[in-house]
Predict the structure.
Amino acid sequence: MLGTGSLPSLLAACESSTGPARLPSTERSPLRFAPEVAPQNLSLLAAEGRAGFGSGAEGPAWLLNGSLPSPLLRVRRGDLFQVVLENRLPQDVILHWHGLAPPADMDGHPRFAVGTGGEYRYAFTVEDRAGTYWYHSHTHMRTAEQTYRGVAGLLIVEDEEEDALGLPSGDREIPVILQDRRVDAGGIPYYQPFGPDLMAGYMGPEPFGNGIRRPHVDVDSALYRLRVLNGSNARIFRLGRSDGRPLVLVGNDGGLIDRSRVLSYVDLGPAERADLLLDLSDTSDGDRVMLRSLSFSLPGGGGFMGGANLQGQPLDLLEFRVTRSVEEPSVIPDGLSTVPLPNPEDAVRERTFRFTSQMMNHRINGRSFQMDRIDEVVPFGETEIWAFVNDSPLPHPVHLHATHFRVISRSGGRNQVMPWEAGGKDTVLLYPFETVRVAVRFTAHRGLFLLHCHNLEHEDMGMMANILVE
Ligand SMILES: [Cu+2]
């Protein structure tokens, strides 16, 4: 539940949300990499523990197998996925494999949440395309807190089509979860939402990468594959390079896109992923390149108190320190993948989902989530057009389970499909007062799935709907 806390803690929250304490602005800590494990015969133990957050700060976190972030799961398409979640946290927990399309009882619907001491067994075949997915808590009314405290990790699927491209791998691959945090005077992140956070979502002034505050990573002067997840509760990142050079997008939520795109920046809302090629071959030993979130403003947005005024503020997210000059070819493939997507011309019906935020109520089509109410019944295998209408001055990253959709149009706000929205998406960012139309088709499994806002405070407060595919 979203608590309000005591008055002293609220005051502390207000003070420390204005700026970090006791850390010189130049000090950065080495990026951490989560341990990599295969999701076969794997137990994930959810429990309270302690984690290091960089610059010597160590404090409490909610962890899977003691790791912050949660272990990186790497799996081949076609492999069996077998994980047992064991819950020792003081709250109910369930895990959702974000972007995968497993059977409904494997998808982490909150009705499957298990209590303290309980366990949940997952077993299914991974039928998803190569790509950068992730997993996180999906406990009703607890998702924001549990994900923020650490119950989240990356999930990478590989396949033969991707192997053939020869993309950078091994030491040339950097998977990173980017998040914003509020920290106390000792540099420890805390989660204490109050009034305005329940409207805008919980944001903080400090950039974290893989659980480390203000991270840097040592690199060679070479081509890297940078798999980025925006794991923030509410913050949007506008990713760009400090040296003005472009980023090359090769994949996003649904895996590889059709062809690489050279972009000056990429917007990433909460839960969205960007699979990027970062070409550092023109740099040399001693150079530094910052991955930044560039400054931006939300049309129609703003005017909110608390953390909301952080939205669009610039952040230095991850610094690349070139420590070795190497001579190796930087091959950036043009054509990448054939992406199976629904054709809007095949659509047999249209549905509208209206997202509203008024007086601390976040709703879809005027309704707040109820665990046992079915909000939409969608026939399996039929193509539909869904219109996501943002009727509010807040951004909403809209996430659909169990399939990937094609973004076909945007009206209002930015008035265009953005170049990073090519391919199959499971999350699409709606700026204030935008309408985004997508082509949707469920072809993997029948059953009860979810559509919700991935601003985690909005989700917890009911901006979620049950979708029955049958
Ligand atoms: Cu929202």
